[in-house]
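It would be a great kindness if you could assist me with a short task in structural biology. The matter concerns a single protein, recorded as an amino acid sequence and a row of C-alpha cells. Could you please explain, in whatever detail you think fit, how the C-alpha cells follow from the sequence? Thank you for your consideration; the sequence and its C-alpha cells are set out here:
___
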Amino acid sequence: NNNNNNNNNNNDDNDIPRPLAGIILNISSKAGKVGLANSAFYVASKFALEGLTAAWAAEYAPLGIDVNSISPGMVNTVSFPKLPGRKGVRTAESIEEAMLFLLGQSMALSSSRRTGHYLHVDEYDLAVSRSLPPEQALKPINEPNFADSLDNDSS
C-alpha cells in the first residue's frame, strides 16, 4: 500500500540525527540555474534534476541519505569533446577535489552534514583560490522563503 509510511518514522523521529546510510550525488549543470538561449530542452532537464535533488533531499534525509548536486562546468570528454583552447574547459580530473569536498560534507558529523545543496566547481575553485572556506561555494537548492526574509529585515 503506497499510503503507508514505509520508513516507519513518526514526526518525532525525523528530528533525531541519523547515521549516514548513503549519498546520492547528481551531476547537474549551471544550466539548471539559468536560462540559456537555444538550449531549452537541456536547460529544462537540468532544472528538473535540481528539483528532483531537492525533493529527494527532503524525502531521504530522515533515512540518513544525503542528496546533493554538482555542476562540473564544461568538461572535455570523449563523449562530448570541446574545441581545443576554449576558455573555461576543464578536464574530468579537475573536478575531483570539488567532488570529494561535496562527498566529504555528507560524511561529516551528522550535525554538520549537508543535503539539498548545489556546488558549481568553478565557484568552488574560486573560493579555494581566494583562501575562503569552500563551504561558501555550497548553496541550498531551495531558495529562501520571501516572508522569512521580510521578518529578518531590520529596516
About this structure: The CA atoms of residues 145 and 151 lie 10 Å apart. Helices lie at 40-60, 96-107, 121-129, 146-151.
